[in-house]
Request: fold
Amino acid sequence: MRALPARRVPSPNAYELIGVFLESSRSPAVLDPGEDPVPIGPDNFKLERRGGIITLEVWNETRNLVRRVIRVRSQHRARLELTVEKFGGRTGCLSLIDLAHPASQEATRRAIRLKYRERFRRSLLRQFPGWRVVELSSEPDLEHSLSPSYPRALLRKGAAALAAIGSAEDATDVDGTLTFGLIWLDYLRRRDPQVPVQGLVIFIPAGREAATCHRVRHLNPSATCAIFVHFPDGLEDAVDPREHTNFDTRIDPCHRPLATAPTETLEWLGRIQTAPDVDRRDHADGAVSLAVHGLEFARVTGTRTLFGLDHKHEATTAAHLVEIEALARGIAARRAPGGPRESSLYSRNPEAWLESQLRRNIETIDASLWTRPLYGQVPEFAGGERSVLDILACDRTGRLAVIEVKASQDVHLPLQALDYWMRVKWHLERGEFSGRGYFPGIELRPDPPRLLLIAPALDFHPANETILRFLAPGIEVERIGVAIEWRQELRVMFRSSVPPCRSPSSAK
Reply:
């Protein structure tokens, strides 16, 4: 005689614990993995106990959720984890959370990630019929630099395999999808060399694919990428990166510094820039800025002189000149290599400080580079500020060099640097640098620019080298690590040229 299945009996205090939690919560909600939280109110929630069976029901305009509660599996701050029975006798997890409690923010973020993860699964099955999703995760993996913000998957079809990664519409950094996708692709290939992972599949929101399409066109063949865009209605479509060939950048004409400035302004400028630790930087638009270790305190544009840190004021009298001099001395006292490290002026914008050191000592980085001219923010990106500072230089053979500067770890540094390199190459091919007055007297070579990534030696992200190995062979890139005490003295600790990745087939 076949035994009957054992009846699941709820823990005796589950009903009371749920009641206490709801009474103590200011904004209770039910959180079902992979779904949006459903707020609980007096008119959309029911908790019943009949004959030893506890039933929880909650509903809104689009959903009606009914679960049998088996037990309380754990209690946390502002969260009650329940083991529940779904239809068909399967068990699962359900959470009660207090949306008003700060501790619930992580649970809400996790729920959002799980919701998109399930949508990502459906997209994979729809676009790759006949393939199996053998692995799918949105959990963080700090050891291997895998982010929870982007669900990742492994697809199999016979002996073939594909890596996949996705980004939701509400992702804070859609452009970061490719970085973590390449890390995932490399991880899968290293984890099991016997499984040839052929390439990477990327899903990103429609209308936000341009940066990723530009980037994949400059990867080597070992990083074959297929890009899909998904729409709010849940469907998706393939896009061809080759259709993205124009860049949202511009190069403005390079003007002679302060061509229209009065004599009095030029005399004042000469007086200030001789002060200790003050650097003068000429900008392509004809303006001149004065800074202490990269921190600008004054800017002269034509007939106007502006000064200040957070807010600029116009200097109109001799008294303002005295005020500007005092400001420069005050910054220099606090923003000195041996200055007070607790000072906000000392710690402010370290990339700008490191950039100023590079400009003063560019030959220490590469003796083949001209010390002048050095340009920043050429070309200019249309919209938004970059988190990486850049210098555009030229060597003595006429070849351009793109120098990207970062004072702290950044997993996205290689692809952010690629963004700038692509644009410099694009404008160079059109003759726009020489045509608009940059690098006067120097015949620029048509060769693609070199790419130099500069950071403190211990502050290159461990995954940077992985990403760099996926860049196309025509991109000559070098990592240069400087000593940790770069504020005192700029010293090169190492130089590293990264060999490209090989595709799985060529690696055999």
Notes: The chain has four domains: 14-102, 108-243, 263-345, 349-497. Residues 349-497 form one domain.
